[in-house]
User: Fold this.
Amino acid sequence: MVKVHLGQCGVCAHFGEHHQETEVLHRIRTTQEAPELIVEECGHPSNEKLHLRVTAVSGCDGFESAVSVQRQGDIRP
Ligand code: SF4
Assistant:
């Protein structure tokens, strides 16, 4: 497992966006930890037509949080 930080794909709203939210995606967002080898399609409009596939610890400037910041270092769905 790897730690997923705010700004990285695992906690981005576009990570696996066009799939029904799976238990795995939900768990990544709530625990901020992801399996090292997980790869999902990015649903950001700029990347969608390219079928860009990213890991949970990848990232880009199109990041949009799938979780709200409660307090520093503690993010929740
Ligand atoms: S590549 Fe960018 S927009 Fe796509 S899931 Fe990762 S951070 Fe979000």
About this structure: Residues 9, 12, 14-15, 42, 44, 47, 54, 58-60, 62-63 surround iron/sulfur cluster (CB under 6 Å). The CA atoms of residues 8 and 59 lie 5 Å apart.
